[in-house]
Write a structure and sequence with these properties.
alpha/beta
Length: 170
């Protein structure tokens, strides 16, 4: 089923009608998360600028796949599930939150965030979010404005190929 969905998304992505919302404008900031490799790519100016190690969902279905939009950003985010203030070393969200609109959650449930558990990076451990080292998410936070498009896939393709397939690289 996953292969069928992936194939359908690839066919639709190269069609002349962009079915997944606004086609990213080549050159604009764009993020790709590849769950297969647990990596995040930042694309800007038609080029993969950096690739960052990440942690994703404990199971394949926890981190949603698809084409989303960054809708909210927060420094020192509050962790409401356990009532932990931003900036607290016990806060599992780390130092930054970059939320996106998966499952119509308006960026409040799914996001790219830091971590207070750096050894989790590169693993399948989250409840659905994408974890980065705090230093990495702080750098990314400064580069991506609200409105930036984010693609989450599980793919054997490299980031340049994915960027071309989804219109982020010409």
């Amino acid at each position: 089923m996953v292969n069928l969905i992936y194939t359908l998304m690839m066919v639709l992505a190269i069609s002349p009608i962009w079915p997944l919302g606004q086609n990213p404008v080549p050159g604009d900031p764009f993020i790709i998360v590849n769950k297969k490799t647990n990596e995040v790519a930042f694309i800007h100016n038609n080029k993969v600028q950096t690739v960052i190690a990440a942690a994703t969902g404990k199971t394949e279905d926890l981190t949603p796949e698809g084409f989303f939009t960054i809708t909210v950003k927060a420094k020192d985010p509050y962790y409401r599930k356990k009532d932990i203030n931003g900036g607290d070393p016990e806060n599992p969200l780390g130092t930054r939150w970059i939320g996106f609109d998966a499952a119509e959650t308006d960026g409040r449930i799914y996001g790219i965030h830091g971590t207070n558990n750096p050894s989790s990076i590169g693993k399948y451990v989250s409840q659905g979010c994408i974890r980065l080292q705090n230093e990495a998410v702080e750098s990314l936070y400064d580069l991506v404005p609200v409105g930036t498009k984010i693609l989450i896939v599980s793919s054997p393709e490299n980031f340049e190929t994915l960027g071309r397939s989804y219109g982020a690289i010409q």
